[in-house]
What does this fold into?
Amino acid sequence: MPRVRPWTVLAIAALIVVAALERAPAPVLVALPGLLVGALIGLAAMQLGVLAGGLALRPRMPRVVIGVGPRLRDWSSPGRTITLRAVPIMLSVTIGPGRAPVRPRVWGTYLVSTIFGLAVTATLIVVESGPFWLGAAVGCTAAVIYVLLPRRDTAVTSTGWVLLHYLRLDPREAAEIDAAPLVAAVTRAVQAGDLPAAQAACDALAEIQPDGQSSTMARVIVLEAHGRYAEALQLVLGMLTEPGLPERDFALISAGLAGLAAAAVEAEQLEPELGLGWAERAITDAEQLAYPSYKLNGAKALVEVLRGNVSVAITLANTAIELGNDALGRADDLATLARAHMAAGDNATARLTLVEAERIAPWWPRVARIRARLDIS
It folds into this structure.
């Protein structure tokens, strides 16, 4: 029996509430677009609260996405990417562990978000006038309730879950999160192309937490930035064998394994059938554990290039580039797209694609390697 999603239940409940309050068909029809507008207002209010809390309390804020649809422009700096998309009806702010004290900053940010959301909801309820704004008030209430429902899986950690659990995590997870400032330093240095600084931060983290998952992931990030995919792959495989690994962590690590295995094959650091088999199995495992499929499009595209399925690879790479908001991830996907166009015999398009990747990270190993191949061809 398929699982009923909370948003479906809330949408049905909102429709029932509107129908019960208005009763007559004509006002109900007027209230329906109000439901949609109110839901968008509620979601935007919660995200504006995250943005306000993030600016005030200064946790790590790696991504801000304004709007939906085609990408118009990116503003990237080490540690943060701001993306503007064509239809500015949504706001998405990603918050993560950053500077110490780590967990109170993140918890406080989401508390500010909750206050924003509840304040906007209360305002709509108080000023509600007519069927449309009744629908808006109900829709906003449903959206805020949805965000506040405590849930955590491979796709999302809700505001409600953070507020209920973040300050009382088990010691292992709390230690991992409290080590996040050094992990963030590694990530920022890699995004800036400052690999000596990234290695220094990685070494400092290893001294504090030599056996932690955070320390291992930092080493993986640095090894990937050096193009040492096979070594990074061994670390990731070791993480997957840890006893008691939660399903959520298994899915996240499997997603990383997929890209590393394919990149190791491309760099001739791993036998093709072994590496591509690992990559395909990791993609399947991640998807079966509800990891968002669209986030795997980059790895899938590289696998298809290496399998010789060029047209499929081009489609997947274009989708990954369009949906991705991480700067280095986008550069990597652009490198895959350039590689696919090369395989299709279209070096002119490959060169244009790679120019865009080089604007983001010309030093990234896959970008530099494909540039070298294009210069020879």
Observations:
- The mean pLDDT is 91.
- The two ends are 55 Å apart (CA to CA).
- Residues 30 and 40 are 17 Å apart (CA to CA).
